[in-house]
Each structure stands twice: as structure tokens, then as C-alpha cells.
Amino acid sequence: MNLKLNFHPEFCQDTLCHSDTALRCGLDNRCPPDLLHNLGRLSVLLGDIRQSLKLPAGALKINSGFRAEALNAKVGGVPHSQHCLGLAADVVCPEFGCAYELAAAIAQLPCEFDQLILEFGKWVHVSIAPLDQIPRRECLSIFSKDEGYLEGIVKR
Ligand SMILES: [Zn+2]
């Protein structure tokens, strides 16, 4: 596949692969070349979100973007997480509001996310669909693993 790599300048490869945990634990968290096209599409979506919400550069913060399998295991990510495919990022934006407010605002945008998940009231997981799939624009919330996923962006 010969896809042109296109990154939003703010959400570059280094930013999306950065992980304090990986650095601390000496884990290689570079994105493999065959997944870079995913990461590029994710980058463009994050740029769209940031601009659509009229946020200044730097306001939308990436808590976790790409995760190599070793890092994903270390941070307790679900197996086969979309983070491991370069399809997902966990974001926060204190300048905009709490995680609920950010998730609720992104849910209103016409952008093509696959899943938007308000996670534990603390951050927002946003993902893109794999290239061969149509974005679902699915909105979910999770507050505890026992309770599981709830439909919609839920305020609590
Ligand atoms: Zn996530």
C-alpha cells in the first residue's frame, strides 16, 4: 500500500508516540512503519477536533497515543487496544473544561471518529476506524470496569 503520510503539524509522530511510562521503563514505543498511515489519520482527526473547538495550539493534550504492545500491557490497556494500531488517543483539555465537557463537545462535531469514550470521568478516548471500515461515531462512557460501557456521553 502506498499511502501518503499526512500529519497535522501539532500532533506529530513524536507527540503521538511519547510516553513517560515507556521512557521510565526503557520500552521502545516507536510506531512501526506499517502503522504510520493510521497514526497520520489520527493526527489529522485530532487537528480537526482542536480547530473545530477553536482551541489554541497546545490546548488539546495527548495523555496516551500510540502504544506498542509492551507499553499497552504495562499501562493495563485492553488487549488488542486501538492504541496499539495507532488508531486511538486519550486526550484532555483543562483549558476547555472537564473530560465530560470535552467529550460532549466532540460528540457534537461533524468529524469522523469511530469511538468516543468518556473514560472514568478523567479523559476522553477518541479513535478512528481502520482504513477499510466506516467510522461508527459511537459514543460511550465507562466509570468502572465492573459496570462496563454505557451508551452515550454520560454526566456523573
Ligand atoms: Zn484510550
UniProtKB/TrEMBL annotation:
Pfam families associated with the record: Peptidase_M15_3
Domain Peptidase M15A C-terminal per the UniProt entry, residue ranges: 10-127
Membrane-spanning intervals of the chain: none
InterPro entries according to UniProt: Peptidase_M15A_C, Zn_M74/Hedgehog-like
Official protein name in the record: Peptidase M15A C-terminal domain-containing protein
Natural source organism: Limnobacter thiooxidans
